Structures are given as C-alpha cells and as structure tokens.
Amino acid sequence: MSKLADFNELVASPRTAYVRGDWPASYRLLSNARSQSELATADLNLLGRSAWWIGRVRESLEISEEVFNRFQDADDAQGTARQALNLALPWLIGGNPVIASGWVSRARRILQELPECPEHGYLIYVDAAFALSFGDLAPAREAAAALQEMGRRLHAPALKAFGLVISGLVDLRSGNTVSGFAQLDEAMLPVLAGQLPPEWAGDIYCNVIHACHELADLHRMRAWTQATERWCEQFPGEVVFSGICRIHRLQLLSLEGGWESVEHAIEQSGAELVGRSNWVAGEAFYQLGELRRLRGNAKGARSAYDRARELGTEPQPGESLLQQAAGDHDAAWAGLCAALAGRDRLAGARLLESGVGIALELGQLQDAERLCMQLEETAEVFATGGIRAWAGRARAAVLIAASRYAEALPLLQGAAREYAGLHSRHETAKTYELFAQAHRGLGQPEIAAADEATALAIYRELGALPDARRLTGATNPGGLTSREVEVLACIVGGSTTKDTAEALFISQKTVGRHLANIFTKIGVSSRTAAAAWAHEHGVQARR
Question: Are 291 and 70 in contact (CB under 8 A)?
Fold first, then answer.
C-alpha cells in the first residue's frame, strides 16, 4: 500500500468519529495524523472544530484561522465566508463580542460579492443576535422574516430554524411570551433532527435557556436544561455545552437547597468555563457570590462578585444586598441605581424588588413606590410566574411600610404559591417573613409567630445563617449589629478609620456612622474606652 493510501486510511477513522460526535477521538486521531503529514483543508477544519468541542479553545481558534487563510489563498470565497462565520461563533459564545464582530465584518465583506447562498442566512442570524443583545427589536424582527423566506427558497432547515429563534426571542422581549415560546419550541425540531451544525444548534439551546432565566420562567428553564443535557449525552466525553448546562442546572438546584455542595460545584464549573464561555462563567461566579452572601461569607461573596464583573457580568442585585446587610445603605442604593440605568425593562426586572427593599430601609418611600410600579408594569407585560411573584411581594412590602397590612396579605399568598411551585425555598422563607410583619400589624401575634417559625425552619435547613440569626434575635454584646462588631474589632486591632474602611470595603463616612452608633450603644465616648469595653466582652481584634 502506498504512503498516500496509508495516510488516507489514517484520516478516515477520525472523520467517522467526527460525524458521530466523538470529538475527543476525532481530535486525538487527527492530531496524530497531522504530526505525520499535512492535513487537507477539510480535515484541518475538523481538527479545529473538534478541539473547540473538547475545550481546547485557543488551539481551535488558531487552527480555524489557518483554515480561513487556506480558503482565502485558494480563492474559495464561499468557504472563506463560511469559515469567518464559524470563527465568529466561538468568539461570541466565549464572551468576546468585539472580536466576533470583526469576523462577522469579514464575512459580510466577502458575501457582498457572492450570489445568495446559505452563508448569507448565517450572517443575517448573527447580525440579528447582535441587534437583540442591544435591545434593538425592529431589525431583528425583519431579519427573522428574511431568514424564514430564505430558508424556504434555499430548502435550508437551518435558516428556517434561525428565523424561528430570532422571531421567538423578539416576541418574548416584546411581551408576547406564548407566541415566543411556541416559535422556540418549533425551532428545536430541525435541531433535534440533526439538521444544523452542532455548534450552531448548541448556540440555539443556550439562547433559549438564557431567555427562560431572564423571564424567570423556571419551569421552562428546567425543561430546556434537561433537554440540552440529553442532547449533549449523544456526544462522547465532556464538551463545552455540557459545562454550560451544568451551570444552569446548578443555578436551579441552588433554589432548592444543598447550598454547600452546590457552592463547591459551581465554583469549579465556573472556573472550567473561563475562556470557553466567559458570559456563562460570569453567571456562575455571580451565583457563587449569592450562595456565599446568603450563607454569611461576606468576604467570599465579594470576591466572587468581583470575578463575575471581570468576566463581564454585573453582580447585581447581590452586591448591593451585601452592602445593605453591612449597613452601607447609601452605597447599596447607588450601585443598584447605576445598574438599573444601563438595562432595558426586562433585564432590569431582576433588580427592582431589591431596589424597593433598599429604598424602604432608607425611608425613601417615593423611590420605593416608583420602582414597585416599574416592576408591576413589567410583570403585566411579560406575565411569567417568577416576575409576578417579584412584583406581588414588592407591592406587599410597600403596603406594609404604609401600615396597610390587610391589603398585603393576598399579594403575599400569591407570591408564596408561586415560589412554592418554583421550588424556590429561600424566596418562600422571605415571603413568610413579610407574612409575619403583616399579621403582627393586624394584631395577630400567634399567626405572626407561626409565620416566623416557618421562615426560620427554612433558613436553618438551607444554611442561611444571617437570616436565621436575624429571626432568632441572636444578639452580639451590647446589642451591636454584626457590622458594628466588625468595625469594633478593627478598632481593637489599632486600625484607623481609613484602614477600617479599606478592610471592610465601606466608606470612611460609613465607618464614622458605625462608630457613633457603637459609642452610643455601649456608653463610651472614645476609641480607647471602646477598645477596653470590647476586651471585657470578648470582641477579638481583627488582624
């Protein structure tokens, strides 16, 4: 047998492995073949795509650029445009829209000179996805219609699916949720039938799950996450989309409990996705921060929020809630308002209830009412169970603050039913706390005590230590808050106001306010006297 025949036999096996989705085998065998001789462009392309699937992103992109250059050198305009779009996709999934946009621009320039072909449809799809990311619905809607028409003309199921996906996402963001989800369901038929390249099919799955999460439609998010996991199971070994699914599944599991195991798993999974899908990795680190905040690990939460921000995810409302718990209400309010200013109506929905709570604690009743009305309007437009629950509980909190306790009860009952149906246990406990406030305001202390007992049982089972301590009235010496104890511990250790502010990540003004409260509560008038009191009452120096 000739050397050429031997080599052809050598690359036949990885080609077969690629077709069946065995990317680890395809990568291994093609890498071996490449070490022996130069690969044909088609085989080199398979090597690059296999490398991406198994998480070797940098190597994949380098190989894919070499394939792009080969197509260009061969004057294969259609192949060059296709490869530019195939390069744009991993950059987009990886969380690098600027570089992705550069490859899209290259594809656009090449396709302008070509007669209509499927690659034009892929370009329209990517352009529409960019438009949607900026909240620009009109061009996305036009693109959806163009894609479906082009799909019919070219007999291309992938383009029809793209058109349904874009049309569905536009409808969802417009408040037509029934129509939107129906189109997304229909778009998945050619995906399930294997009529789309797997990378692009995976992108559709991710877009659908992200839409469910944004709309707080957790029932659908669970269903789509399970469907995506089943889709991933057809591919041997660990692939990029498996890691993305794992993050979404852990987000859902964290609603139900098991925080300790979820915290460890989501930290590990998030770290593994860095460089592969930075925007999902950012979501993972935000969820990690939330778990740490709720479990009482303020320092760990802050670190996770910082990592999320580095990866492009704004860590709100968690960061503001962490600042609020530390007594830094002004920073909490400022941070939340800044985040809301950069989001559209749907993207801002998740922040509004927290904003209502912070505004009420600051005594800013007009701001609380304004944010509550925004959330109610959002819930009326999108009408998903999760957003309705946020809006109902926010309105109940505003009514309780106005001593309109009876009016708050039916809203809380609706929110409690919704959260129970969503298996969202911490949110259920928070709702029972508000029940307790309303019943106490109505002169029903026994019912209020039962409500608090229900909330406390859930908090304890979850390991929500700050919430449990707050409800049990567990007090620090002298009636100091936990943050005041931290400030006092810094003073005992000899820290200045500036040092204390830096150590606790709060402003010097806030440190001064805490010190004034401490002096008043323990009956002293100097730092020296406060330090002596701290030694007597077991407050250890913070080093």
Answer: no
